[in-house]
Amino acid sequence: MKSATLFEGKHHRWVVFGRDESKPDKIVDTNQYMILTHEQCFLMDPGGIELFSAMLAGVLSYVELEKVTTLFASHQDPDIISSLGLWDKTIPKAKLYAPWLWEEFIRHFGMENIEYMPIKDEGMELRFDSINLQFVPAHYLHSSGNFNVYDPQAKILMSGDIGAALESHDTPMFVENFADQVSKMQFFHQRWMPSNRAKKNWVARVKELDIDIMAPQHGSIFKGEAVQEFLEWFDNLDVGLAR
Hints:
Structural class: alpha/beta
Mean pLDDT: 95
Helix content: 25-40%
């Protein structure tokens, strides 16, 4: 599993894990994100059960296990949180922030120790060590209970499945040509995003944020002008289509 630093500031940094060359062909490649402060570690969409050992090794290459205090699940899908039962045994004193709607479903992945912290539909702010994070509503994109994570200091939006592209493990870390990226994203967004109204609400909300990097769960990461290119493209895309 490869990793890279997306942002490094005075008080914290962002790391992305992904592009797993050893994953089975029938399992989609995912991006996992981590925020490190001087005292704590925050894992976002930490991955499926098949990824746990590689993900744990990656995290431990950056930080001691006792500093991993917080997990986040944007929604209920197995590719982002089915490793929960193993994290539950590994970091039993941690907290999991996730949509209130999915608690009874997410617990099926195994959760005896970690404390579930339900996020209400309107979202919330989280003081994490020395930084402030925002859980931004992204409902129906593609899950009916769904959130992004926004870091106003780093100017990074972890966008979950929004902006996702189903690409191979050797895809570039960042989007290099937006026009080329469209063909890799269009079917996924039109089929998995069911509501044009929800989409436009999200675009309007996100356009009010100061974003340098938009970091999706699958595929390449958007940086600089590519962020705005994606927002304009997505705003005009007709979604909720089955072929």
